[in-house]
Amino acid sequence: MSLSVSLRHRLDRFTLEAAFDAPDGVTALFGPSGAGKTTLVQAVAGLLRPEQGRIALGDHLLQDSATGHWLPPHRRRIGYVFQDGRLFPHMSVARNLSYGRRMNRLPRDPEEEARILAMLGIAPLLDRVPATLSGGEKQRVAIGRALFAAPRLLLLDEPLAALDAARKAEILPFLERLRDETGLPILLVSHSLAEVARLATTMVLLRDGKVVRSGPTAELLADPDAVPSLGPREAGALVEARVTAHHPDGLAELATSAGTLLLPGISAMPGTILRIRIPAHEVILALTPPEQISALNILPATIRSLRFGDGPGVMVQLESGTDLLLARITRRSAEGLRLEPGKACHAILKSVAVSRQDIGAG
Amino acid sequence: MILGLSPEAWAAVALSLKVSFWAVLLSLPIGIATAWLLARARFPGRQLLNGLVHLPLILPPVVTGYLLLLAFGRRGPLGALLHDLFGVTLAFNWTGAALAAAIMAFPLMVRAIRLSIEAVDPGLEQAAATLGASRLRVFLTVTLPLTAPGILAGAILAFAKAMGEFGATITFVSNIPGRTQTLPSAVYAFLQVPGAEASALRLVLLSVALAMGALIASELLARRMNRRREGA
Questions:
Q1: What pTM was estimated for this model as a whole?
Q2: Chain A (110-169) residues lying within 8 Å, Cβ to Cβ, of chain B
C-alpha cells in the first residue's frame, strides 16, 4: 500500500509545498530541523489540516482539498509515535497498549498482541505506570501502543531524538525488526543520517519546505549530487554484506559484491545480511594495489563520476562489484592522480573506520 | 442545645450544607463544560462567555440577588415558566438559595477547572485522536481523568464559597428561619439581637471548622490521586 502526499501549507518562515510517494517499506523524511518534516507527518495523521492538498493511502483517500474531503484523525487508522512518547500518565502500560483497540472497538487478537509484546520486549512492563519507565522503555511502549490499534500506516516522528546514544542503540534493533517483521508501511522522520541509512528503504530529502530529492536510500546515499543536501561530513554509501565468519581476534569477515571486508564489533550470526554505511571521508583511493599497509580492506573499484564542490574537496563515486561507494578526497589528490570516470583504482578502508551505529540489519 | 447551639442554629447549618451540596453537584457538569469551552474551543463570543461567567465575581452580590429575583421571581419570565411547567418556585425557597449559591460560586469553580484543563498536554489529546478516539472520547478518557484534581479543587472551592454566600441569597430568598436561613444569614440574624453575640461566635467558629475540614479533605484526596499517577 503506497502513501501519496501532495500539499501546500503556509508556515511561519516559508510555505511547505511538497509532493512525494512512499512505497511499502520505510520511507524517511530527512532534512534539517525546521524543514517541515513534522508538519508533513501531522498532515498525514490529520492533526493539521493543510490549506491545499491531496493525501491518499492506497485507494483510501484521507484528504482532498479539491472536493473538501477531510477525514478526522480518529478515523484514519494511522499509528503515530511521537518524539516524546506521549503515554497516558493515568493509565498502566497495559491500558495504554489496549487504548487504540478499545477506541476502535476492535476484537482482541491475543496472538498478534503476544507477537508485538515479544518483538518490543515490553511484556514485563504491563503492570507499570509510565512515570516509572525509562526513556527507552517509554518509546517501546509508545510503538506498541500504536501497533495494538492495527494501523494501516505507522508514523515515527523522530522516535529516537529524545534518547541518549545508549538508548538509541537499544531501540534501533527493535525498529529494524518492526520494518522486517510487520510489513507495515512506515514513514520515519529523522535528522540523523545514520538512523535513516540503517532503517529507510526510500528517502525523501526536505529543505525549507520543499522536496529536494527522493528515491531509494542506497541510490541516494551513493549519489554525489545529493551530498550537498546530506552534508559532506555525513556522506557515505551503503554496502550490503553477508557475514561469513568470526575470527578470534574480534574481527568479522563479510562478503560483499566486490570482495571481502574485515570489520570489528559485529556479533550477527554467519549468514546474516547487513547493510553497512561506509563514510566517504574514511575511504582512501590508490591507483595500484597497496602493499604493506595497515588498512585491512582493499576493494577494487572503477570511478564513475567526480563532483567538484566549492571547497578543496571532491566527491568520487566508485563502482565496486555491484555496489556503489563514495570517497571524499581533496581536489589536489584527484588532480595529482589524474582521476577520471572509467579509471580503475582501489578503495582502501580502515576496519575501525566503520562505527557500530553504521551497521544495521539488511 | 448541642455544642451550645440552638436547634434553630443547627437548622441553619444543615440548610447551608444542603444548599451548598446541591449547588455544587448541579453546577459541576455545566462548570466542566464551560471550562473546557474556554480552555480548548475557539469560537466567536468566547470573550463574552468569559465575561458572563466572571460577572458574579465583580457585581455586588446584592445586585446579583436582585437580578435573580427579577428573572426567577414568581412574576419573572423564567420564574413564571418554571412555576407553570414544573410547579417549582425558587424565590423565597431553599432551592433558590442553591441557585444563588451556584451562580456566585460558578466563577471560582470554572477558573480552577479551566486552569487544570489548560495544564493537560494537548499532545496527549492528539495521541488519543490518532489512536481512534473521537473528540468526546478524548475528553472522557484523557482530559477528564487528568483534570480530576482540578475538578476536585474547583468543587471544594465552590462548596466553600456556597457555604459563605450571603448577599445574593438574602436578597433572593430572604432570611426565613428553618426555610431559607443559611449559616451566614443566621450569624447575621444573631448579630441583630442584643445579647446573642455568643451564639453568633459559636456559629462563626463552626463555619471556620467546616471550611478548614473541606480544605484538608481536598488536599488529602488530591495527594492520593497524584500518588497513584506516579506509581508509588
A1: 0.81
A2: 128-129, 131-132, 145-146, 149
